[in-house]
Amino acid sequence: MARNKIALVGAGQIGGTLAHLVGLKELGDVVLFDIAEGIPQGKALDLAESAPVEGFNAKLSGTQSYEAIAGADVVIVTAGVPRKPGMSRDDLLGINLKVMESVGKGIAEYAPNAFVICITNPLDAMVWALQKFSGLPANKVVGMAGVLDSSRFRYFLSEEFGVSVEDVTAFVLGGHGDTMVPLARYSTVGGIPLPDLVKMGWTTQEKLDQIIQRTRDGGAEIVGLLKTGSAFYAPATSAISMAESYLKDKKRVLPCAAHLNGEYGLSDMYVGVPIVIGAGGVEKVIEIDLQGEEKAGFEKSVGAVKGLMDACKGIKPELA
Ligand code: LMR
């Protein structure tokens, strides 16, 4: 059986971590693309030299040419610049939008049948622009955000309750920005929804509110610690879970920035919602019932994403 081909566009910290995970999980052969001379080649060779120790079989190569991604089954896009302390993700819009244009064209030309996962910030607006620039079907282009935000939420909850991360489920919806919406009612410890855990006295509403805010600030917390860049281990592993669900037709239910066409009363925009990812790409958008504050929070977040989309249209009128 032929191995899958996975193209990683951007060979920075996330790109390198993605390549490592693809190798360790034997998801396929890796083509690491970057415009920086030598970096993708160096990282690919370094990782290939680790394969005999780990015992994984994968061909890893680096390139500066889009031609090398030809026929990729999955393309994961991390190209662009990360934020620095004091910046918001939205500050990256102008520079990263230009990057999405050239990446979108490269994918359209060489990997039009791929399942594309975008990680570049500001996420929801960038994945929307990437889909438009590439012209790929909207169900084959998704943004990685909700899996990461939900994983952070799960981790903080597991610490608070002193339980295994495996027994904590959580959902974070909305845009991947300061307005994201961690949903307490749809998050559980051992199957028990968080509001019930407050009623049972296992935690307090105040503590829960602090965890929710820490989740919203999760990206900035890492940027503040690293100083020279943003998170890469958790973003990479989150994107790999999406790629794996596609390649193995796992049909996982994952919160991702997905193209909405009527769902949640929204059209032609990307925002974080639960979706089913299988061999058909985005096979279903799950419309969960949002109430009261949840609904208001989601609407506010949608408004913020729309503002960023308008800014993109202002820079690149062809996106309108
Ligand atoms: C994250 O959430 O870690 C990423 O979006 C990177 C960032 O700038 O916060």
Task: Write up what this structure looks like.
The strands form 3 sheets. The protein has a 6-stranded parallel β-sheet with strand order 3-2-1-4-5-6. It has a 3-stranded antiparallel β-sheet with strand order 7-8-9. A 3-stranded antiparallel β-sheet has the order 10-11-12. The longest helix is centred in the last third of the chain and has 24 residues, at 292-315. It starts with a strand and ends in a 5-residue tail after the last helix. Helix content is 43%, strand content 22%. The radius of gyration is 19 Å and the shape is globular. It contains 11 helices and 12 strands. Helix 6 (146-161) packs antiparallel against helix 8 and helix 6 packs across helix 10 (233-247). The chain has helices at residues 13-24, 39-48, 51-54, 93-110, 123-134, 146-161, 194-199, 205-216, 218-226, 233-247, 292-315, and strands at 5-9, 29-33, 60-63, 74-77, 115-118, 141-143, 168-173, 181-189, 192-193, 252-261, 267-278, 281-285. With 320 residues, it is of the alpha/beta class. The model has no long low-confidence stretch (mean pLDDT 98).
List the helices and strands and how they pair.
Blueprint: E1 5-9, H1 13-24, E2 29-33, H2 39-48, H3 51-54, E3 60-63, E4 74-77, H4 93-110, E5 115-118, H5 123-134, E6 141-143, H6 146-161, E7 168-173, E8 181-189, E9 192-193, H7 194-199, H8 205-216, H9 218-226, H10 233-247, E10 252-261, E11 267-278, E12 281-285, H11 292-315
Parallel strand pairs: 1-2, 1-4, 2-3, 4-5, 5-6
Antiparallel strand pairs: 7-8, 8-9, 10-11, 11-12
Helix pairs in contact: 1-2, 1-10, 4-5, 5-11, 6-8, 6-10
The chain binds (2S)-2-hydroxybutanedioic acid.
Binding site for substrate: 83, 89, 121, 152
Family: Belongs to the LDH/MDH superfamily. MDH type 3 family.
Domain Lactate/malate dehydrogenase C-terminal: 148-306
